[in-house]
Amino acid sequence: MTATEASTSVELSIAGMTCASCAARIEKKLNKLDGVSATVNYATEKAHIVLPVTLSVAELIGTVERVGYTATLHEPERRLQPPSLLRRLLVSTALTVPVLVVSMAPPLQFRYWQWVALMLATPVVLWCAWPFHRAAWANLRHRATTMDTLVSLGVLAAFAWSLWALFLGEAGRPGMRMQFALLANGSADDIYLEVATAVTTFLLAGRYAEERAKSRSGAALRALLDLGAKDVSVLRGEHEVRVPIGELAVGDRFIVRPGEKVATDGVVLEGSSAIDASLMTGEAVPAEVGPGNHVVGATMNVGGRLVVAATQIGADTQLAQLARLVEQAQSGKAAVQRLADRVSAIFVPVVLLLSSATLAGWLAAGGPAHSAFTAAVAVLIVACPCALGLATPTALMVGTGRGAQLGIVIKGPEVLEHTRRIDTIVLDKTGTVTTGRMKVHDIVAADPDAALRLAGAVETASEHPIAAAIAAAALDRVGTLPTVAQFRSIPGLGATGLVDGHEVVIGRRALIERHGVPMHADIIAAFNAAADAGRTAVLVASDGRLCAVIVVGDAVKPSSAGAVRALRGLGLHPVLLTGDNQRAAASIAQEVGIDDVVAEVLPADKAAHITALQDKAHIVAMVGDGVNDAAALAGADLGIAMGSGTDVAIEASDLTLVRHDLFAVVDAIRLPRATLRTIKLNLFWAFAYNVAA
Predict the structure, then answer these.
(1) What sign has the CA pseudo-torsion 679, 685, 686, 687?
(2) What is the pLDDT of residue 269?
(3) What kind and span of H or E run contains 506?
(4) For 663-685, how does the pLDDT look when each residue is reduced to its tens digit (9 = 90+)?
(5) Residues 6 or more apart from 456 whose CB is under 8 A from it?
(6) Is 148 a catalytic residue?
């Protein structure tokens, strides 16, 4: 497809796949369509397809059906275990155990034991193993082979040989004894009913375990979707109407009472409360909200009554976006999985050729027919590599599901390879290492409470972040504040106002000097000390007299210092990269234990610094949250966005952290590394047992 051609994407739910070879065949057929790029995942039973707008979904479904499977447009729903699979497993187990015991223990073989074994084995081979036979036949009609072909051939061959031996050979004679020896080649009157039944039972158990694993790995996604409210109290005029959540529209005002979930993303219009977001973000401390604050759907109101205006609904909410990202990650394929799929696609034909060659070789060498048959069937039975097909997708799904529980959204499976190789982690300062919110750190004054009371009264009328920090500190420290009169904001400098008859000036040094207020040596010293620490010094004057210096600055997150130590423990070199001034950056870096600081950089410079590190052969991860971090996040080998950041930053990243503390970054490095180790271990054993056998 050319860059100018319009395209769209769809997801199909695929039914009838029984192994990774099935997925590989469907994927190959879909990708043969002009302009189509398809990825079929056996574990999720879905196909993610990018197609030109000129191609219809019906044509895609028809292509899948022509290969021998069924497809429908994917609709998220709870995955249930097929009850027939469990029933077949239970029946097969109950009938196989006595067949296995009597066949392998000669002392227990009574006069007509072989005929009883035949009666017990027949329903296992014909009914319990029917899913394997049905899949093998469906594939045979389309001139294809899958893992089910091996299973079906092996089971039917063992059963057919046993029937021949019982009815046409000597195995049916009364009192027949079949000796069991580990290295025996068998004899002409041997029967293989225990092989047919045991293989069916073991593979049914494996198939059931696969379904259970796939179901559990989707549990995190279902849990995310289940977090949302099911109905909501909407204000229609002045009356409340309880409606299903699906009827809520953008702009609707809805009520959130104490103990209720917030129905959808919105802005608080009335009331104040504390919101428990622990289910969404993992943060244990509820956040205080009031008019103008944003709230996220599925969080819990643990305080007062709120009136909220809906800003996003349905698929646009943070909850839905998070679920979508998790599902996309689970549907993707890592490089190691693509290798496994390619191997699986050619594995079955190779095994069939080896089995045929084994049979022909034994017969050509003059070996007895029963020995040749035993060896050929053994190749078919042993070579069923279901573990090979599921080694990667199951581990990937479990890893991404666990990531969702920890507040880590892995956008794609290729992230697994990236996390393994990174050696340098670049951290943005504001909003990543720090809270991104201004906080009062110190007050230098003869009477700090009185000075803060006057300053807070003036700053309550301002919307500037520094003003908000001073007002909040004043409310927290001295309580109720007096009303300000004659308030005037001077952009870029500060503000003035009349408080309890006192003329108050608050702001930069230039504003204080403009009002003719003399500077004292102790105030100048405090001002300079704040600047040296990289913080902002706000001067307060009352009635023409300088009375205080209020030191304001960004606050370091409590977890940052410990998280930096943990990142070093993972073998990563931390770098602080910020557009803030050098002194502020150096102060923050010293507080959290980072030695390498790059400050006063523009957004383009951030991306250039990432490139410079890569040019020195470093594998770089970048952690950021703002629009100015987007280019650096996209250019890094691994981009990690804080979930509290902008949509641009999140879209440019590979990992998104719903939690806001820096320890989430540590978890985001550990989890994919652990998942990749599990995948490699799974693939090793999947290959090893086949090669060894």
Answers:
(1) positive
(2) 93
(3) strand 502-507
(4) 888 888 888 788 778 877 877 77
(5) 470, 471, 473, 474, 475, 478, 481
(6) no
